[in-house]
Design brief:
- The protein is mainly β.
- It has one domain (about 5-94): Beta Complex (Metal Binding Protein, Guanine Nucleotide Exchange Factor, Chain A), CATH 2.170.150.40.
- Helices cover about 0% and strands about 55% of the residues.
- The protein has strands spanning about 5, 10-15, 20, 25, 35-45, 50-60, 60-70, 85, 90-94.
- The chain has a four-stranded antiparallel beta sheet, with no helix packed on it. It has a three-stranded antiparallel beta sheet with strand order 2-1-9, with no helix packed on it. Strands 3-4 form a two-stranded antiparallel sheet.
- The mean pLDDT is about 100.
- It holds the Pfam family NTP_transf_9.
- It comes from Waterburya agarophytonicola KI4.
């Protein structure tokens, strides 16, 4: 089952991930909310839409903008609406 790990802690785990552009997107209910803090960062993708970010916090350490998601998506990306993906050193095991 795919899982996301940062700073020795599993922060998301699901067997219902979606793979888009080689990124595992985790369903919103599979992330452990206590490790996620809303960020004001936003970026735009021409075919997915406007991305929002989370800072991941584990044991007092912060990984700024290490997770992103699309609260609203363009039609071609509806399968990942609200799903969360990772980068910046977050290890995703499949």
């Amino acid at each position: 089952m795919p899982k996301a790990i940062w700073n020795g802690q599993v922060i998301a785990e699901s067997d219902r991930t979606e793979v888009v552009e080689n990124n595992q997107y985790f369903p919103p209910d599979s992330i452990k909310q206590e490790y996620f803090k809303e960020s004001s960062t936003q970026t735009s993708c021409p075919w997915k839409g406007q991305a929002s970010y989370y800072t991941v916090v584990v044991d007092g350490k912060e990984n700024k903008d290490a997770a992103w998601y699309y609260p609203e998506t363009k039609e071609k990306a509806n399968n990942i609406k609200g799903y969360v993906a990772f980068w910046k050193g977050v290890k995703v095991e499949v």
